[in-house]
Amino acid sequence: MRFVPVLPRVLFLALAAPALFAQAPTLDPAVVEALRGADLATDDLLAKDPSKLPADAQLYHEHLLFLASPERDGRLPGTAGMEAASRYMEEHWKKAGLLPAFADTSGKERSSWRQAFPLGKSQEIGAQSLALDGANLPLAAGKDADFVFLGLGGGAKLEKAPLVFVGYGIEKGPEEYTSFAAEDDLQGKVALVLRWEPMNEEGKSRWATGRQPWSGRIGLQARVRELAKRGVAGVLIVNTPGAADPRNAELPEPGTGGRKAVDFPVAQLSTAAAERLVAAALPKGPSLLELRKRADAGRVIEPLGTVTLAAEITEKQTIAENVGALLPGRGALAEEIVVIGAHLDHLGMGDFGSRSGPGKLHPGADDNASGSAALLLLADKLAASYRALPESEALRTIVLLAFSAEES
Hints:
Elements: E1 9-14, H1 17-22, H2 29-35, H3 42-47, H4 55-67, H5 80-95, E2 99-100, E3 102-103, E4 110-112, E5 114-132, E6 147-152, E7 157-165, E8 190-194, H6 220-229, E9 234-238, E10 265-269, H7 271-281, H8 288-297, E11 302-327, E12 336-343, H9 365-388, E13 397-403
């Protein structure tokens, strides 16, 4: 798709609302002050009393709460929450009197608010199984069961692969911490890796500083990529025994590894399932908790027999959509275009790009529902200003763009 008309001179502005309003002298100072701190989390905004805000700030507050509501599920491209946010932008732009920014599929008529583009493929996973070979150890698949597949690259089945416990699977941490020695060979093996990072007796991070409960090393994607470099055939992530984090009791939705990042299966196990697996593989010990405590201090490589993994998998093309509105110019300046943009999407449930790991809602109030809400306020004000000017006044064309897939 393309903009219609195609214009020779373009000025593009990307905005986040705090910066915009901090520099907007035409707004009431009380509004500017009310809109400062738009980076507040959704819960904080809900605690405010919007009736005490000026009218513009009340409207901004309303837009921001809708876009960052838990019902939007973090506005991940291709989800129902993102679709609802996109429709919201369209409806308000249409109400303000703006026009769709994009041509239809023929390219001859500007009739679409959306600009679709492929974002990559996601995996939908059906029937799943995970078994420790030679052991009577039934494990049930599913978010509320024993394990889930986050992604299954490289085929739908992996048979009798050696399973090895690798601690936290961290290449390098503070105080020369590492989970590996140079001679460790993981080629063709399935790595059983602990979630989180080395912890103390209370189950809290040994490395965290400041107010955050964990350091930045809890990110699973980086560790899976490092294990990929070591040639693993699969990764089983374990909800770590004794971890003082409520998320440790949760499993994500199946397939939430998103677009295929590695060419081998990745699954996540509950603590109880992993304890049963280790007990079956090592009937004389050590237990999973004992292995974890060793891993808190450094390298632990422990063979655990062989495993077979299988799942039914289909791939689905994810389509993202930019949403755009046009305020036509006129006269000698009509072919000069000002594009004002903000990204509408965010991280969903944190399955990528999140320091806290998957399973937690990321409402994206400041990043960037704030800027998207500003686009809605600008639509009202700019359209009203254009209508109020004499017909003889030359005006530039303005395009408001709510981008998708900025985070992706």
